[in-house]
Each structure stands twice: as structure tokens, then as C-alpha cells.
Design brief:
The chain has 183 residues and is an alpha+beta fold. Helices cover 55% and strands 17% of the residues. α3 packs antiparallel against α5.
Length: 183
């Protein structure tokens, strides 16, 4: 066998190096890289601004929906009458002339119908004062007045008038007695 001759590889220098670039190729490569960087920055900025715009519009829509719901609630509060249970009262009526030693008691449960929820909330906050006002109407009454429907209507009218004078805003539209018992 004969020894194989190997070809001698050419010397590699700057000019014949496979990765060697001439001046024009270097410029083209530089501008290509620069354009890619600019493209990446542009896409990043577009995405960033789109997110800002999208989230701003989304938050504006949410704010608009919240404001709309608040307006609906406010209108609903202003328009809907509210019923309040003032409570059950055990009231001492005027004593009966021929039964001086016995107590003359009556049990009454009172409900108020208010024009607004705000009025109802105010009454709930000042419930003790309202109860005192109502008790002051019952105390000078006789048993027969409490049993008479005509006297009860008159008393309800006076109560409504007195409570409306006491209220700083709103009004009481009606008073209802759900339970009136005379033992």
C-alpha cells in the first residue's frame, strides 16, 4: 500500500476565511441588525401603548358601569318607600275611674312608611326619640279611644304631623298598627 497523499489545506487568512466579510457586507449586516433592533423596540412600544389604551378604556367602562349602578341605587333609594318596624309598645293608658288600683295597659306594634330610604335610615338611627314621641301620644288616651277606628285615624294623622315636624328631611307617609291588644 502506498501512503496516501493528503492534500495540503490552503492557509487561512483574513481574505479567504469563510466568515470573512468585506466592507459592503459589514455595512449591510450592520443595517440589518439595526433594523431588527428598531423593529423589536417598535413592537414593544406598540404593545405597551395598546395595553395602556386597552386598560384605560376598560377602567373607563368599569367606572361608567359603577357610576350607572350608583345612580340606579340612588334613584331607587329616593323613590322606594321604606317600612320600618318601630317596635311593640306596652303602654299605660288613662286609669279607669272605677278601677283605680289596676293598671290600664295596651299593647301596640307600630310600623312607619317613609317616603325615602334616607328618611328610614334617619329614623332607625334615632329610634329612641321616635318611640318617645309615639308613647307620648298613647299615654293620655283612654281605652275606648284606642278601640275606636275614628279616634285611631285622628291619632294617626296627629302622629304623622308631629313626626314630620320632627324630621329634618323626608316625611312619614303612613302609620300602621299591626297589633293592638287591650287585655
Amino acid at each position: 500500500m502506498s501512503p496516501t497523499k493528503r492534500k495540503k489545506s490552503p492557509e487561512i487568512n483574513e481574505e479567504n476565511h469563510p466568515l470573512h466579510l468585506d466592507q459592503l457586507s459589514k455595512k449591510v449586516l450592520f443595517f440589518l441588525i439595526l433594523n431588527i433592533i428598531c423593529l423589536i423596540i417598535t413592537v414593544f412600544l406598540i404593545i405597551k401603548n395598546y395595553k395602556k389604551f386597552f386598560y384605560r378604556n376598560l377602567s373607563q367602562k368599569k367606572t361608567h358601569l359603577v357610576e350607572r349602578d350608583q345612580k340606579k341605587e340612588k334613584n331607587k333609594e329616593l323613590k322606594t318607600p321604606e317600612f320600618i318596624n318601630i317596635g311593640q309598645f306596652t303602654i299605660e293608658l288613662k286609669p279607669i275611674a272605677w278601677k283605680k288600683k289596676t293598671l290600664n295597659l295596651a299593647e301596640v306594634e307600630v310600623f312607619l312608611k317613609c317616603d325615602k330610604n334616607q328618611t328610614a335610615h334617619y329614623i332607625e338611627k334615632n329610634l329612641f326619640e321616635v318611640r318617645d314621641l309615639l308613647v307620648s301620644f298613647f299615654t293620655p288616651m283612654e281605652r275606648s279611644e284606642l278601640a275606636s277606628s275614628l279616634e285611631m285615624k285622628r291619632m294617626k294623622t296627629k302622629m304623622i304631623k308631629r313626626l314630620n315636624q320632627w324630621l329634618p328631611f323626608g316625611k312619614i307617609e303612613a302609620i300602621y298598627f299591626s297589633k293592638v291588644s287591650l287585655p
